[in-house]
Amino acid sequence: MRDRFSEIQSFLKIVEAGSLSEGARRLGLSLAATSRRLTQLETRLGVPLIRRNSRHLTLTDEGAIFFDKAGRALAELDDAEAAVMRTATDASGLLRVVTTIAFGRRRLAPLLHHYAMLHPEVEVHLETAEQAGNIVESGHDIAICFDPQPDSTLIMKRLADNPRVLCASPTYLHRRGRPQHATDLADHDMIVVGSGAQDLWRGIDMGGAAPKRMLSTNDGELARLWAIDGAGVVIKSLWDVSEDLTAGRLETLLPAVSLPASRIAALYLPAQGDTAKVRSCLGFLAKHLGVDSANGRALHAD
């Protein structure tokens, strides 16, 4: 294949140069090597492409057809290479991102909208799912996940911490009272989101006691709605309830209680990290995908 390409390239250079000697000079080859390539090409094709004499080279009919079609083919190949090489330096093309439903709607969608306005050559496609699945199988460029498990086939980039808070609605607190100490939680109803939340509750020092579990679910949005409806105390990610805290639908409890933050991370294939669209998006998200824990408001992209 390499010899075939070299033969075609040599033929085109000879015709463009107008002579074997000038074609050889432009190719950086000897006159003998250049002539040999032309002969090999004509032998492989089974027709003469160039009529030679001591002063001039002229194309045969077959040579004219081959020069036109081969020339256009190599030009398109050059364009293809240039287009692919630009993806390493210029953010462009389709960028496919997948994340969880609630996070996609509440946090990632506005940020990716802003990113798309800053990078008009990038077409952003955001998908949401219960779990950000296998990006190799799904064909996504980036998966935004929470505490993802290590995967030897993927690169993991930490984007931000994900602080958690204890919160409840004003109606619940009016009915049951506001806990003043961690031990007071034993007298309250808890809403548990997923199996991991049980470990979070067990990590709170309640003096050996445990709160009463009233409701549990694997749906974070459902747990949030239960809490707003006054069903009990819930542990939620700050990004998920920041608007509810600002609007007064929920209130934070026991800020002195330390709850471990989870990690928001991006997963992507090693080769994808070399493309400008992925690099620029990850850099943008790492800069802006934060939460102002002092006042409970999501940071705005600037």
TrEMBL record:
Pfam families, A to Z: HTH_1, LysR_substrate
Sorted keywords for this record are:
DNA-binding, Transcription, Transcription regulation
User: Where's the HTH lysR-type domain?
Assistant: 3-60
Check the record and name the InterPro entries matching this protein. LysR-type_TF_proteobact-type, LysR_HTH_N, LysR_subst-bd, WH-like_DNA-bd_sf, WH_DNA-bd_sf
Task: Read off the PANTHER family from this record.
Answer: HTH-TYPE TRANSCRIPTIONAL ACTIVATOR TTDR-RELATED, HTH-TYPE TRANSCRIPTIONAL REGULATOR
Entry's family note: Belongs to the LysR transcriptional regulatory family.
Query: Mind telling me what this protein is named?
Result: LysR family transcriptional regulator
